[in-house]
Each structure stands twice: as structure tokens, then as C-alpha cells.
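In practice, a research group might receive sequence data for several interacting partners and want a quick structural hypothesis before committing to experiments. The following worked case mirrors that situation: the sequences arrive first, and a predicted assembly follows.
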Amino acid sequence: MSSLGLLAIMHKLAVKSSLVALVCVGIALMQTVHADVADEMGRFQDYFLNKHPDLPLTKYADGAFALRDSGAEELVALRETVSLEKTIERGRALYLASFANGKGYAACFRSNGLGIATDYPYYDILARQVKTFEMEINECRARHGQAPYAHGGAEMTALLAYLTETSRKNIITVVIPDNPDALAAFEKGKQFFFARRGKWNVSCAHCHMAYDGKRLRDQTLSPALGITSHFPAHYAQWSEVGTLHRRFSDCMTLIGAKPFPAQSEEYRNLEFFLSFMSNGVPLSGPDVRP
Amino acid sequence: MLPALIGLGASFGQAHAAEAVNIKLDDLAVPATKSPTAAATPVTPTPDKQTKKKKEAPHEGELIAFDEKRGNCLACHVIGAGKNAGNIGPALIDLQGKFPKEKQLLAFLWDASTQNPKTIMPPYGKHRLLTEDEMKLIVEYLYTLTSAPAE
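A structural hypothesis for the assembly, expressed as C-alpha cells:
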């Protein structure tokens, strides 16, 4: 059986239990992933797990809160001050509204699009690029004669918030097919992560790997492990829920670099790299961050 | 493990630096001392400077160091009574113990990666983040910090 075939079957099972999912991740990785990238993921995760020996892999879903002494209490308190309900509800309404042709998102995705956020990102071998959930939502709209949503815009964010909410606690299970194009996309994402850039000459890895848990001014730096798990997320500086790529752009601006557009190839490859490295962490999005 | 991964970053950094501003270090070329372990030799600021600091305007180097658009040093370092300081780098105290000569600290500010290729410290001179005069003022100010910071 081809590795992709196995994956497709796995997806059809719509696995809910984390434990079963973890076993499936293991099988999928053995079947489909190039030995070198699987090894890189192991070393990447070991780096964090050795650095924070009291923190189990699943706790990385809480990001920087997981590294703060009273982080768990702080996160609960913050969740009480910020309401995600309106955004999720709006996303649900958008999901339920029919297209002009009477169809809906259910026509484009397995499991009607519900509980499948961990299918993304994935490498589309035919399209020769990393596909994100956001991208395929717009592809679905186009297929049914609907205008695309703006990337990271209010509608897209709300829809993602709802669809992610239906996938909450599912385990990140990104697979990199043993295919040269897929490996190249992963490699580009990795290079992006480790490359110094911008006025301050800083890489993603500096803050989110070498110095995670330390403070940049009063902000605790989050670990790169699990960093994709809580999006879309409400950030104080936005006063609203936003996407992972919007956050990437915040970081770029902060280090004095020119941001790339949301859903650009650069950001999708970075998302691919980070999500793969975060395999095994449960989705906690939509969530809140300071 | 990590060294391999971070080392990768460092090599990208060097590639990036190569295409970035290329400046001759000239008189700054003296590499700073590498052993910060030497016992600190506290400097006694001149009484006149202390009075100035307490009663009058802060040292100009402090203004530059604290300014988010210029030094932005508090983003990573605890410095004197500076507010909202990060802790990525060490607290800046007794720097003359680590860098006995001004030009050593100046060279470090210019481009700390010459001593540690993996450093997160921005290359203030190499990337022209600050002018040489501004860096000299910062060095002058940092040398006045000889007691434990307020925080």
C-alpha cells in the first residue's frame, strides 16, 4: 500500500482519540517520512524536552504559558477576560450558510470539514506546494463560484476559528511525503526558521528555540515546539482573533524585517516546518495570548 | 543536536552578513577580551557624574540605550533603573570588569558575532543601527553602572 493511501484511510477513520492518533502518527511517520526529517523532528523535540524536563509534549499547546511559574492560572484568567465565542459563532454561521449554488464547505472536505484541522498543512505533490486549510477554503469557494475571502481577513479568521474549534485537542499529525519537492519545501521552511534577518539580525530560532522562556521586555518567548497549535488566536495587540501568518508578520516587523504576505510560499513552508516539528502536540486553538 | 540546528542558523547569519553592509572596522578592529570571568574592577564614577545623574538629566548614553528606536537595550537586558526590561542577555553591570577598555566594549557593540557567531546581540555598528558617537555615549554610560540594579 502506498504511504499516501494509508494516510487517506487514516483520515477517513476521523480518529478522535489522542492515543489512537498518536499511534497513527507513529505509523504514518514510519511509512511516509524520509528518515532524515523524522530524525530531525526527534532531535528538535528532544532539545525542548531536555531543556524543560518537567514539561510533557502535550503541554506545549499552552505556548509561553507552559514555561511560566503561574502560567496555567494566567492562561485560565486570560481566557475569562477574552471572549472567543463571538468569533467562533460567526465562523459557524459562515460555515452553515449555503453558497449560491446551494452547496457548502461540506462538499469540499472530508468529514464535512469538521474536526479535520490537523490535516493541514500538507504537501500537495500534484500542485507541488504546501497547502493550508486557509488556501483550500478559498479553493472550495472558487470551485463553487464564490469570491475568495481575504487571507487573514475577518471572515476567513472566523471560519478558521470555528473549524479549528471542532478539531480542538486533536493531535498535530503533519506528514512529509518521501518526495523531493516536499522535502525541498520542508528545507525552505527550516532555512527560514534559522536564518537571521532584518535590522536586528535575529532568526526565529534565536527567540523561540535558544531563548524560549526568557523575556523580551515583559513578554515571555514561546517555544517553537507547538507554536502553531493555538491559532487562530486572540492577541491583546490586535484586540481580535487573528491567524498564524498574521503573527508571523508581527515577528518580522518586530525584528525590523519586511513581512511576507499571508499565505505566501515563504510562510506556508515555515508553517509546514513548524507544524511537522510540533507533531504530537494537541491543537488548542482558537485560544488567547497576551 | 542543538548545536547542529543553531549552527545552521549561524551559517545563514554569516551569509546574510556577507551581503549586508560591509564596513571596515578600522580602529575598532581590536577584538574584545573573551573572558568575562576576570574579577570585576569597579570603577568609581566621579562625584560630579553621580550628582549629574541623580539631580539632573540622565546620561545621554542612557537615553540612547533606553530608546526603543535606537539602542533598545532594555528589550533584552536589565539596565540600572530601566523599566520593562527583558532577561535574554545578562544584566548590564560592572561592564568594565568584562571589557576593561572602552574600545573593547565598543567592538562588542559594533559586532558581537565576531566573538560568538550564534549571538542574538544585534550588530549595532555593522548594521548601522547606531552611529559610532552614539555607541561611545552608551559605553560611557554603561561604565557608570557599578552597583546592583534596582530590580
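Before designing any experiment, note the following. The first helix of chain B runs from residue 2 to 19. Residues 1-46 of chain B have pLDDT under 50 and may be disordered.
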